[in-house]
Specification:
Layout (H helix, E strand, L loop, with lengths): L7 E4 L1 H4 L5 H13 L2 H4 L3 E3 L26 H10 L3 E7 L15 H11 L3 E5 L9 H13 L6 E4 L18 E3 L8 H10 L12 E3 L20 H13 L4 E3 L8 H7 L2 H7 L8 E3 L7 E7 L5 E7 L5 E6 L11 E7 L4 E6 L2 E6 L4 E10 L1
Parallel strand pairs: 1-2, 1-8, 2-3, 3-4, 4-5, 5-6, 6-7
Antiparallel strand pairs: 9-10, 10-11, 11-16, 12-15, 13-14, 13-16
Helix pairs in contact: 5-6, 7-8, 8-9, 8-10
Length: about 375
């Protein structure tokens, strides 16, 4: 079964945009295991827009750009598979992709067969140049049906940016993940805006169809296609922690061939990733603080009976995060407290009853795993 837990991988768009090539994809596949990504759970290597020629072939088929991919896509897919990875590609519901290459409108079934023949395991399906008189849910259902008929298991990643109230119908299309936001940029304000847009939307994500907050910008440092200022390492930790506790798919966007040690540690922190990859697939719920602080709190029930607890300071000033356990359902008379483990410091921090309070610097986070224990 595809996407029992949120998919994990890498996508070319954030750093490289249209500047993609066969060599880049092979070099990325070569670096994957050495960077510890396979061991951390990342498996999908995805080529985004601008991979094809500007016109279909005479018989109506999509054609890879002969300069960027001289060996063809089947050879690229075979190479990616030889590294123990899965291979992903991109198309669009409209007449053209966002980069003005051929879209899949009215070509859904033949394109799905082409992708299957090439060995594609993942399809990102965008929303540009969509006809106004055709509902979006029809177009996504059409491609979902085509992928089912292709004879190959292909993960269906719907990318319509949260348009048309897609959270209300996207699961019916067969999509395994769906974008609920506009495009991310490599800066704190973009990360903050996306995170806050998800407040109280935890009911729209579940196994086999996950709410996608867009690709990660961890490790980009202001370089690349969506580089709009860059972030500090602490802001990248907060970004990654938010995506994990909210059960977003984790699609790396930096150049993994040249990751520094800090980026690698963030992206491969198995304790934080473990929150995202919990088999029950529950998105964290939002917890308001009594003092309406800019520090946001998220609680994620986990399959072993523990909880993920995250404190996130969205403001430009130091802030207090104070969680009253009564608001989670744990009363003082229950006889229980919470044993907390800091998932970034990898250490237990003690047992607490009734409440837990921490102070956070601007844009910083604290994220814990909490177990119920007898006091």
């Amino acid at each position: 079964m595809l996407a029992q837990t949120p998919p994990m991988g890498w996508n070319s768009w954030n750093t490289f945009g249209w500047q993609i090539s066969e060599d880049l994809i092979k070099e990325t596949a070569d670096a994957w295991k050495d960077q510890g990504l396979s061991d951390a759970g990342y498996e999908y290597l995805v080529i985004d827009d601008c991979w094809s020629e500007k016109q279909r072939s005479k018989d109506g088929h999509l054609v890879p750009d002969h300069n960027k991919f001289p060996g063809g896509m089947k050879a690229v897919a075979d190479y990616v598979h030889s590294k123990g990875l899965k291979f992903g590609m991109y198309s669009c519901v409209g007449t053209m992709t966002c980069g003005r290459h051929p879209g899949s409108l009215d070509h859904e079934f033949e394109d799905a067969l082409t992708f299957a023949e090439w060995g594609v395991d993942f399809l990102k399906y965008d929303y540009c140049y969509k006809p106004h008189n055709t509902p979006g849910h029809v177009l996504y259902k059409r491609m979902g049906m085509a992928l089912k008929a292709s004879g190959r298991d292909i993960l269906f990643s719907a990318c319509n940016w949260g348009s048309d109230n897609c959270h209300e119908w996207i699961r019916s299309t067969g999509a395994h993940m769906f974008r609920s936001t506009g495009d991310i940029q490599d800066n704190w304000e973009s990360i903050k805006s996306i995170a806050l847009s998800q407040w109280n939307k935890e009911c729209y994500s579940a196994p086999y169809c996950y709410n996608d907050l867009d690709m990660l910008v961890v490790g980009m440092y202001g370089k690349g296609n969506v580089a709009k200022g860059g972030c500090t390492d602490e802001e990248y930790k907060t970004h990654f922690s938010l995506w994990c506790i909210m059960n977003s798919p984790l699609m790396i966007g930096c150049d993994i061939r040249s990751m520094n040690d800090t980026t690698r540690r963030i992206l491969t922190n198995r304790e934080v990733i473990g929150l995202c990859q919990d088999p029950e697939g529950r998105q964290a719920y939002s917890m308001e603080q009594w003092n309406n602080s800019a520090v946001k709190i998220y609680i994620k029930p986990l399959s072993d009976g523990s909880f993920g607890i995250g404190f996130f300071n969205m403001s430009d000033e130091e802030g207090e995060g104070s969680l009253q356990f009564w608001d989670m359902g744990l009363t003082a008379s229950s006889g229980y407290g919470f044993k907390l483990r800091d998932l970034w410091e990898h250490e237990d921090v003690g047992v607490y009853d009734e409440n837990y309070t921490c102070w956070l610097k601007p844009h910083h986070c604290k994220i814990y795993r909490a177990w119920l224990v007898k006091k």
